[in-house]
Amino acid sequence: MSAFYKEKVLSVQHWTDTLFSFKATRDAGFRFQNGQFAMIGLEVEGRPLLRAYSMASANHEEELEFFSIKVQDGPLTSRLQKIKEGDTILVGRKATGTLIPDNLLPGSRLLLLSTGTGLAPFVSLIKDPDVYDRFESIVLVHGCRQVAELAYGESVVATLRDDELFGPLLSEKLAYYPTVTREPFRNRGRITDLISSEQLFNDLGQPPLDIAKDRIMMCGSPAMLDELKGMFESGGFLEGSGNTPGHFVIEKAFVER
Ligand code: A2P
């Protein structure tokens, strides 16, 4: 048995010069938990060329979806950005990752903090009815340099708001907070600053950070993750893992592509 499924590309959407998303068929045997990642890629010169990608689709969905950067001289993404409907991609059989609700202690508010393509696992998680059962409220923060980089997230959230099942859940429980650092936008600033200044919570009209209630998942640039981890740990928050649930969990948005 091959270590990979061969899947067909169903559609590709380019959001900016540096960001695209695509959908592919999903083998009925491919199981994953929402928030996890798998190795995916292309066959290049007869050999698999793979990188870790979070599934942006939820595990109840029939198709797979991924959100990717385009690195001009990146071994994989220089090629992957050219895929078209009908092309074949490889999907590793084993999904893994720490951004799963079981790695968190019970809590009432879930903060999903992302930059760039670190949004992807949270796109999967906000399509998980179990997440809405576990938490009274969910805050999805997506930080980017430019407004255009928010487009995929904006589109996902807008589609879910119109969904028969998820529309009511989103309006009751989900606060979506896109923020931009390098041009004008209604929300501005780095996630670290928005949390330490409490501006995020003030803007949302929500209470400040509370270790008794808040559980956190973060995915994005290593520098942001380091800073956030330090901030939360100095407040007594503990990192969770597969063995020990904690107050927060972390996954790097993989950038060497
Ligand atoms: P900034 O524009 O101030 O660098 P990138 O495209 O470099 O991955 O960055 C994505 C977003 O993450 C940008 O808005 C960027 O802000 C922000 N960012 C980068 N480093 C940090 C950090 N150490 N803490 C918080 N946000 C960061």
UniProtKB/TrEMBL annotation:
Reactions catalysed, as given in the entry: 2 reduced [2Fe-2S]-[ferredoxin] + NADP(+) + H(+) = 2 oxidized [2Fe-2S]-[ferredoxin] + NADPH
InterPro entries linked to this entry: Cbr1-like_FAD-bd_dom, FAD-bd_FR_type, Flavoprot_Pyr_Nucl_cyt_Rdtase, FNR_bac, FNR_nucleotide-bd, FNR_type-1, OxRdtase_FAD/NAD-bd, Riboflavin_synthase-like_b-brl
Entry EC no(s): 1.18.1.2
FAD-binding FR-type domain boundaries: 2-102
Keywords: FAD, Flavoprotein, NADP, Nucleotide-binding, Oxidoreductase
Entries under Pfam families matching the protein: FAD_binding_6 (PF00970), NAD_binding_1 (PF00175)
Required cofactor names: FAD
Top enzyme category: oxidoreductase
This protein's record includes keyword Ribonucleoprotein: no
Family under the similarity heading: Belongs to the ferredoxin--NADP reductase type 1 family.
Protein name: ferredoxin--NADP(+) reductase
Organism for this UniProt entry: Bradyrhizobium ontarionense
Taxonomic placement: Bacteria, Pseudomonadati, Pseudomonadota, Alphaproteobacteria, Hyphomicrobiales
